[in-house]
Specification:
The complex is a heterodimer of chains A (237) and B (420). Chain A has 237 residues and is an alpha/beta fold. Chain A is built from ten helices and nine strands. In chain A, the strands form two sheets. A five-stranded parallel sheet of chain A has the order 6-7-8-3-9, with helices on both faces. Chain B contains 13 helices and 17 strands. The chains are: A alpha/beta (237), B alpha+beta (420).
């Protein structure tokens, strides 16, 4: 089974801070795995996602995503890597307010020729793929497409954001507490839709939340405070 | 690049009111800047165009600018007249090629009446030495014939054969009219874009005829000489207001000027129109420069408004930038987006400003011509105006760099999570 994420002896400290926020001995995520990462606020979940997305670079350690050593790549290369291979879903305010639903979804294709090519190889267009994803995420009302995105419900916004993360079939999908503003019923529906679409494209899903009840839905769960040695290191210092 | 431009345009459309106000403030400030510059160049052009081919302008002793203004541009009044005898003597100088005498002091419904001779139609030129041409009718032939300028005819609706009555004095409203001696429109001049368009031309003899029963600027009590009776009298002018001189050779200009300025019979002033115009520009140049400086400050204020609007929106846009980063936008894209917005706002401001400038000139042109006799041409954007536009555009770009740099730094710092 091939590894999508592989990191070892990784340390990250925010600039102007003396205490590390993340210190991990090792972490592996396999292809097509659905990993749930839990932990309280401040446990380093968002920092870990920032590292996996290539936005942040560790001060120490080895960080490999899809076989690429992100800590060795320059800023531009990491940006390009993220655009081509990673879909990212935020917690809230996921959409660009001045773009339409479809424009929001196809936005990554503008920054990633690789995603645009993958869509083309499927014999379709970015617009058609956006509509297909919306339909798959149960957003089929044509009136919805004409609505300003900030008039959509929170649940609808999250599904549009998921469609944006999934367009162009990225190999890794990262969700940073994307269900925290949904009620329990919508939360489960949303996650199942996400699983379906990831399964269709063969994507790996890393999902972060502090809601432990969601862990049961995922194939693998990781409690970040258990493997993050940052606090221990700080105490030792 | 295309994506960034698309995002910038849609982002601006999303903040319609703020953007509209910013564009409006930039456009109005640019209109003011270009308007001041264009008014300066066009008014210079208009003044320079008004008189051509005249070597000397002669009037009673006064300042050169005053003489130039009342004799050529019909602005202000003469303080004194000069005698016909002096005029005849100077005209007879061997160096003189031709002269055009003019007599001012009367008006018709706000338009100046100029007493002159047929030499005016033969010799007067404007602009690039263009002679006057009569569009309809003929030059004056009868004593009570008048030739009117194009603007006078258009505004007052006169045609050849119509009758008009001259009023005493050069004001817009006159209470004393020479109603006993009406004139007939004999000809209408083609438009020139100079004060000629706003005048009524009659013969010097006609000026003499309408004042034959007047003394000291008022009708003689109990004396009334009819129009026909006046025809039989000697109507040789006693005084005129000024005259234009063309010399046979420009080399003689200073000699003749000195002769006239030292004329023993009466105090006269001879000026070179070009030199007097230059003095006029020097006089009003200070005010023009001050106005230009004020308009530059207004542009700075307009661009500061844009900077304020962009800076105040930065914090609320940090999450938007994080989303863009998550879909693969690089910090340089974020920087480009902010710069693109500033450039688009400045460009729209410039486009609207130039459109407003032309609209303003289209509206102001007939008003300035009819009220001030100032013809402002509507021409293409000049190289200097392009330079000003380019500088404003560049300033807009530089102004955009400040918020762009800040958001660039924030985008690097925030990454995918906004840490406020």
């Amino acid at each position: 089974m091939s590894r999508v994420v592989e990191l070892s002896d990784l340390h990250f400290t925010w600039p102007r801070s003396t205490q590390p926020v993340l210190s991990l001995d090792a972490l592996q995520v396999n292809r097509q795995e659905h990993l749930f990462i839990k932990g309280p606020s401040g446990s380093g979940k968002s920092t870990l996602l920032g590292l996996l997305a290539g936005i942040l670079i560790p001060q120490h350690g080895r960080l490999s995503v899809l076989g690429r050593r992100l800590e060795t790549l320059g800023g531009s290369a990491r940006d390009r890597f993220r655009a081509d291979h990673i879909g990212y879903i935020f917690q809230l305010f996921n959409l660009i307010p001045y773009l339409s639903v479809v424009e929001n979804i196809i936005l990554p294709c503008h920054f990633s020729p690789a995603r645009a090519n993958r869509i083309r190889h499927q014999g379709t267009t970015a617009h058609q793929e956006a509509l297909r994803l919306l339909a798959h995420l149960k957003l089929t009302d044509p009136a919805l497409l004409c609505k300003p995105v900030n008039e959509l419900s929170v649940g609808q916004q999250q599904r549009v954001a998921a469609a944006r993360a999934l367009i162009g079939a990225p190999e890794l999908v990262i969700g940073d507490e994307p269900t925290s503003s949904l009620d329990s019923e919508h939360r489960t529906v949303f996650i199942e839709l996400l699983f379906d679409e990831c399964a269709r494209t063969g994507a790996t899903l890393i999902f972060v939340s502090h809601e432990v009840s969601l862990a049961a839905l995922f194939g693998k769960t990781l409690n970040l405070p258990e493997i993050n040695r940052a606090e221990t290191l700080a105490a030792e210092q | 690049m295309k994506t960034i431009l698309m995002l910038a345009m849609k982002s601006l459309r999303n903040r319609f009111i703020m953007v509209t106000l910013t564009v409006l403030s930039i456009s109005l400030s640019l209109t003011l800047l270009l308007g001041v510059e264009r008014f300066r160049t066009e008014s210079h052009h208009s003044f320079t165009n008004t008189i051509a081919g005249v070597d000397l302008l002669v009037g009673a002793r006064s300042g050169p600018i005053q003489l130039l203004l009342y004799a050529v541009f019909h602005i202000g009044h003469a303080t004194n007249n000069l005698s016909w005898q002096s005029y005849e003597e100077i005209k007879a100088l061997p160096e003189v090629q031709w002269t055009i005498p003019i007599s001012l002091g009367d008006s018709h419904r706000g338009y100046r009446v100029v007493g002159t001779t047929p030499a005016f139609f033969d010799h007067f030129t404007y602009g690039a030495r263009q002679p006057l041409s009569i569009e309809r009718g003929d030059p004056f032939d009868d004593l009570y014939d008048a030739v009117i300028g194009a603007e006078t005819a258009r505004r007052l609706g006169y045609e050849v054969g119509d009758t008009l009555v001259i009023a005493h004095g050069a004001g817009e409203v006159s209470f004393i009219e020479h109603g006993d001696k009406p004139f007939t429109v004999a000809g209408i001049l083609a438009p020139t874009g100079t004060p000629v368009d706003r005048a009524v031309y009659v013969s010097l003899e006609a000026i003499e005829a309408i004042h034959i029963d007047w003394r000291g600027g008022a009708p003689l009590p109990g004396v009334s000489i009819s129009a026909d009776q006046a025809r039989r009298l000697d109507l040789t002018p006693r005084v005129i207001t000024a005259f234009m001189v063309k010399l046979k050779s420009p080399i003689a200009t200073f000699t003749v000027q000195r002769f006239i300025n030292q004329y023993p019979a009466e105090p006269l002033t001879a000026i070179l129109p070009g030199v007097a115009l230059q003095q006029l520009w020097e006089l009003i140049g200070v005010a023009e420069k001050a106005l230009f400086a004020v308009s530059i400050f207004v542009v700075v204020v307009g661009l500061s408004g844009m900077l304020t609007a962009l800076l105040t929106s930065l914090n609320e846009r940090r999450r938007e930038m994080a989303i863009l980063r998550s879909v693969g936008a690089r910090p340089i894209h974020i920087f480009g987006l902010m710069i693109g917005e500033a450039v688009l706002v400045t460009s729209m401001g410039i486009a609207l400003g130039v459109a407003l400038l032309y609209l303003m000139f289209i509206i102001a042109q007939p008003l300035l011509l009819s009220r001030l006799g100032l013809y402002l041409g509507i021409s293409m954007v000049s190289p200097f105006e392009w330079l000003l536009i380019g500088l404003v555009w560049l300033a807009g770009l530089l102004v955009g760099i400040i918020p762009a740099w800040r958001i660039y730094r924030l985008a690097l710092m925030d990454g995918l999570s906004v840490r406020t």
